[in-house]
Specification:
Structural class of chain A: alpha/beta
Strand order of the largest sheet of chain B: 5-4-20-19-18-6-7-16-17
Number of strands of chain B: 22
Helix content of chain B: 25-40%
Number of domains of chain A: 1
Radius of gyration of chain B: 23 Å
Oligomer: heterodimer
CATH topology of the largest domain in chain B: Rossmann fold
Bound molecules: zinc ion
Distance between the termini of chain B: 42 Å
CATH class of chain A: Alpha Beta
CATH topology of chain A: TIM Barrel
Mean pLDDT of chain B: 96
Shape of chain A: globular
Strand content of chain B: 15-25%
Number of strands of chain A: 26
Largest sheet of chain B: 9 strands, mixed
CATH architecture of the largest domain in chain B: 3-Layer(aba) Sandwich
Largest interface: A-B, 67 and 67 residues
Number of helices of chain B: 13
Helix content of chain A: 25-40%
Distance between the termini of chain A: 40 Å
Number of domains of chain B: 2
Shape of chain B: globular
Amino acid sequence: MIIKLTGGMVYDPANNVNGKALDIYIKNDRIVSKQEVTQVDQEIDLRGKIVMAGAIDIHTHVGGGKNNIARILLPEDHRSDPVAATELTRSGTGRALPSSYVTGYRYAEMGYTSVFEPAVLPVNARQAHMEMGDIPILDKGGYVLMGSDDYFLQMMTAKKDQQAINDYVAWTLNATKGIGVKVVNPGGINAFKFNQRQLDLDENNQFYNVTPRDILSVLAIAVKELGISHPLHVHGCNLGVPGNKDTTLSTIEGIGGLSMHLTHIQFHSYGVEGDFKFSSGATEIAEAINKNKNITVDVGQVMFGQTITASGDSMKQHANHKHASPNKWVCMDIECDAGCGLVPFKYRDQNFVNALQWAIGLETFLLVEDPWRIFLTTDHPNGAPFTSYPHLIRLLMDRSFRNDMLKTIHPEAQKMTTLDTIDREYSLQEIAIMTRAGAAKLVGLENRGHLGVGAWADITVYTPDDNREKMFEKPDYVFKDGELVVRDGEIVHIKWGTTHIVTPEFDSGIEKDLAKYFSRHMTMKMGNFKISNDEITEDGRNTLTVQPTQRGIL
Amino acid sequence: MTTKTEVPSPFCGIGTDDLVLNVDGKSINVLANGCAINTPAFEQAIGDIVPRVNGKEVAIEDAVAQAADILKTSHQTLIGGCATDVNGMRALVSLADHNGAVVDNIAFNTTRRNILALQDSGWMTTTLAEVKNRCDLLVVIGTDLEEVSPRFFEHFIWNESPMFLEAGAQCKVIYLGKEPSGQSAVSPAGVRPQVLPCADEDLPEVVAVLRALVKGNNISHYEVDGLALTDLQALAGQLKGAVYGVVTWSAGSLDFPHAELTVQVICELVKDLNGKTRCSGLPLGGSDGDQTANQVTAWLTGYPARLSFAKGFPEYDPYLYDGQLLLENKEVDALLWVHDFNSKALPPEGVVPTIVIGRSGMHFEKEPAVFIPVGTPGIDHCGHAFRMDGIVAIRLQKLRESGLPSTAEVLTLIDQAL
Ligand SMILES: [Zn+2]
């Protein structure tokens, strides 16, 4: 099957194409050159349309135990958004944490073709993959959460060498089928189990005498030495605490030039100025990001409305439970591995703190200069559900709209933000970098996120509209692996994506000690803990795609 | 004849995976680490393998066609039991979605006691490995723990080498309400559990008083049969003094009206304790796929496993879609019963045409319209099941070649025939 997409205005930053009318040829699942094509089976006239690669969400909570707890916790939220079955699609529910099928449909309907779950607890990875296995259309993958598990912390206390840590990290990635490594409140989830309520960057986990800074450094080195493309994905210390910008700055400083991705940076960019002792640290944080080329960030933009915060950070979520709205919340300690906390949240534009959080996120987007190093997220569902992305894109691309919105928020928050002094408007090319080319590069996906010859044919086509929200919420066409899945913003065909993983090498000798550890201290044998390939592929729909590691290219 | 080690079990809820079995053709013997729940469940011989329609043996295609006919003509189908593995639940929800059925897990009336508490105010809970390595005080409320989970103490409390407890001192065990029926709560050193006995019907009040004491409220006088205020004051003190207390209960054992309110008070008490120290709830359950049913429907629909697809989209109601009541009130006109773990878990008898997708070996008082015997996940085919703590899914193995189809396969065939 050969499809020709004729004459669309192409934005393909990975190939330095910035708004040029081009023809694109799709042969089966890939983009090919004109020379490779003898006859065209279907031609679609895209003159006047805008063409980008399928969008990639690098950080969205779409699979795993805490999501399911969040779902069960909020039936009233689902009742407000029932989704009926059609001839083609399954029923479900939407809102803050949609059901798995609805997650796939709604992402695809917005032109997204890949999503990455950023908090896969090793012991919960099986569930995460099963849930993601029921997300249609999209490719998916997960970052495996490390840094608070007792085996790792015992290694740290015992001063095991870096090679041993590398082996353990690689073993975990293989056993749980991850594509990257995540760390959440490094050592803090663990410390909370010992009743420690606070853990600053240079403070000891009181049981293990290990600091978050030690953990970050060891894991960042492991990621580098194993050649994993995706940098260590860091949810830092002091989430949501006023004044935490200093922690964040020190985290950036302290990593010593190693690659590091700081996630939902908005929640870590707070100062203590002003009458409410809560202020924006976005300017300083953005400056540090601009200066340190080893740092990437996603924003975790807050949008106003009801959502639920779902995090592995049980320590901070427990501290935040007083803000639960509605007033119900869950914290969980999990299997000497990690933990989680679920706190429903209603961000209100007339609440000073929430309003300023909204502004801080936007300041960050606009002050970080390099779109290759900043990514568009709401930390779904923590800042807002992912369905708010088109609105967010409009805020970034349309200064007058942004300033109109600014005038509606809490007046004191308006005074505490520099937002109205920032002229910048994101260009289409910059949006394409943040949500496609840069995202594929950050996750380490070969031949995704671009439209050059050899790329997988994940393609989204929009009708240009000055109202960018309207434009981005309803693409004309979405192709996934060369198959047309969305037409005029509606699902027209179901296919199944792949699960992206990495399989770094490790010394299998470590399994001797691990098997003993599992038998003595865990509640599952090591052999039963490891996820086999057929667990993911035996349903006949899902596949595994191993992304290359870059061992030796240090 | 082969010996299999480290075999995981879907039957006991705690995800036991140290079973040693002998597989000889179609017969299975538990050689080591069995218990009153797992051993008979694994050793049960295969019964019928041929499907029946109205009591007559037929080919599977005919049984599937007959089942599809019943479902097609039904105005409102109830899918009951819902005791299967992850793939079975996936197929079941798909069929329900296409058929507009009500889905109701067999254990929901007991699970509801936990879910209502969770949905009203939330909770703080823990999982089994945390219990195994950290728990220095275990309070068992209203539950004969070893009856619900025969190897709980052996697996998670009387450990040789917990990571964060002094060897030897280990865990203090206190029963509030029901007394333990056996000896498994007695420590290896011979220390007996402390028992604060009271009647089930007194538990709501007793637990409320305990919470008040934990919060530091002044209670000058309280007494129920067998239990004095000083006992509860001491217990409150022990909970506050514990480093990592765990409060456990089995919703199924709290068998009195509005037990969800008692579960809620337990959960709020645990939250209160976490103001200063650490303490976690540990709701028991998870046997025969009850956690699996709730987990799978949660990600497929947003709701736990009592819901209706009648309007074309999922709706959840913990009372309205009670399958037993729907049958009694004649609000459903067909029953699809799914239970592939326990051949004694028979469908409720009623007048509606009944299709049974059941573990081979079911014996019916009243022959259902269609019976399709299926294999059991973890014995006859691979699969996945969720443990009681909801977070850990276990990989179930295929142990023998029985020729029995899986529930997922049969439901998918019926789904396709609709
Ligand atoms: Zn996140």
